[in-house]
């Protein structure tokens, strides 16, 4: 009985402290803000997964700054709804929605073909779309969903658009990765988790692949005036937790400690526009500042091997 009373009293004190310090906690949780005054008049931006969460807020901010923003969404209706809400909050926003399903290489190829025929410049590509902790599922091409969408789909997309980015230089690529890369390993012997599957580890593997991809691509883009950096957006209260009831509950209970999607978009925006990053490439950022990369994310051997394996899996050549 006494123990129970102590626990209840303890919880009460913690709740009271959280309520009292809520404004300070919120300010701390919000993290870094992109303070760049850069205007994006005349610039074209492509953002994947732009219909919700971090992607939508990134689209809004870049549109406010005058860019033509192309929102690549797998569900056109959801995309149009988000584009309408962006137009409603920014009358001069030039936003358009195009269909792209990163879980289907035919969709990626069709998207790129139309894009290259209709859009003649691309200054900023933001590989933002992502899935987390979904039950074991395969993409149309038979890839495990996390590595398929988060890494291979974006790898193929970037390979198809890289010529346009080079022709539009100076240009930037932002790869939205995660702190979760710290807990990932590239399981070359079982990249698609056919032997054993853990949804959390599959997510971490895909986010490590994002970091390795950004580093390897940056090495290969030296001298082109196209830069590529990876980003950890922070822990953001978005739809990302949709496949995990536990995480969804956890995120709503602790929402005061989490970033809003707008706050989570700040580092992507920073990497996409900040003047001081014009020649910075192959780096990892969080809270609009350089961030730690786990040793497995710094291995040149792993990044080269992942590059080769990715080309092999997608049946493409990219050197
Ligand atoms: N939220 C967080 O705490 C963190 C997020 N991140 C990363 O940030 C990025 C954005 O996540 P966040 O905004 O939080 O999550 P959301 O779930 O809110 O947004 C994810 C976006 O990706 C899209 N998407 C998913 N699968 C596909 C697909 N097959 N083809 C095209 N688009 C697809 C979704 O479309 P639809 O709505 O139609 O499903 C949605 O637009 C992700 O890469 C995530 O890994 C990294 C660290 C922490
Ligand atoms: C432990 C802990 C937290 C939870 C962090 C979590 C659950 C992070 C999830 C990160 C994700 C989903 C990354 C995606 O790439 C809070 C609520 C921040 C604050 C209290 C301490």
From TrEMBL:
The keyword Transferase does not apply. It catalyses: all-trans-retinol + NADP(+) = all-trans-retinal + NADPH + H(+). Its EC number is 1.1.1.300. The keyword Oxidoreductase applies. Signal peptide: none annotated. It holds the Pfam family adh_short. GO terms for molecular function: all-trans-retinol dehydrogenase (NADP+) activity. PANTHER family: PHOSPHATIDYLINOSITOL-GLYCAN BIOSYNTHESIS CLASS F PROTEIN-RELATED, RETINOL DEHYDROGENASE 12. This is NADP-retinol dehydrogenase.
């Amino acid at each position: 009985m006494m123990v129970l009373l102590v626990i209840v009293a303890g919880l009460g004190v913690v709740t009271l402290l959280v309520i009292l310090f809520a404004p300070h906690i919120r300010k701390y949780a919000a993290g870094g803000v992109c303070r760049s005054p850069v205007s994006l008049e005349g610039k074209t931006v492509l953002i994947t997964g732009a219909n919700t969460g971090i992607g939508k807020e990134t689209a809004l901010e870049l549109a406010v700054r005058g860019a033509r923003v192309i929102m690549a969404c797998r569900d056109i209706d959801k995309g149009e709804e988000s584009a309408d809400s962006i137009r409603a909050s920014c009358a001069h926003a030039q936003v358009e929605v195009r269909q792209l399903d990163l879980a289907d290489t035919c969709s990626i190829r069709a998207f790129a073909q139309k894009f290259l025929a209709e859009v003649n410049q691309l200054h900023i590509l933001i590989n933002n779309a992502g899935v987390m902790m979904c039950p074991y599922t395969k993409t149309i091409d038979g890839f495990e969903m996390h590595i398929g969408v988060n890494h291979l789909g974006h790898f193929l997309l970037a390979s198809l658009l890289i010529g346009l980015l080079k022709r539009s230089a100076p240009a930037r690529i932002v790869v939205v990765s995660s702190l979760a890369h710290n807990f990932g390993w590239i399981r070359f012997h079982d990249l698609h988790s056919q032997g054993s599957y853990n949804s959390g580890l599959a997510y971490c593997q895909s986010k490590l692949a994002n970091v390795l991809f950004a580093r390897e691509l940056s090495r290969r883009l030296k001298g082109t005036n196209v830069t590529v950096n990876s980003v950890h957006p922070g822990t953001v209260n978005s739809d990302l937790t949709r496949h995990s009831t536990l995480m969804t509950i956890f995120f709503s209970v602790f929402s005061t400690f989490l970033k809003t999607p707008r706050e989570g978009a700040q580092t992507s925006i920073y990497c996409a526009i900040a003047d001081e990053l014009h020649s910075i490439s192959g780096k990892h950022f969080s809270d609009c500042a350089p961030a730690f990369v786990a040793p497995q994310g710094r291995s040149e051997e792993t990044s080269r091997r992942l590059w080769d394996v990715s080309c092999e899996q997608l049946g493409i050549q990219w050197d």
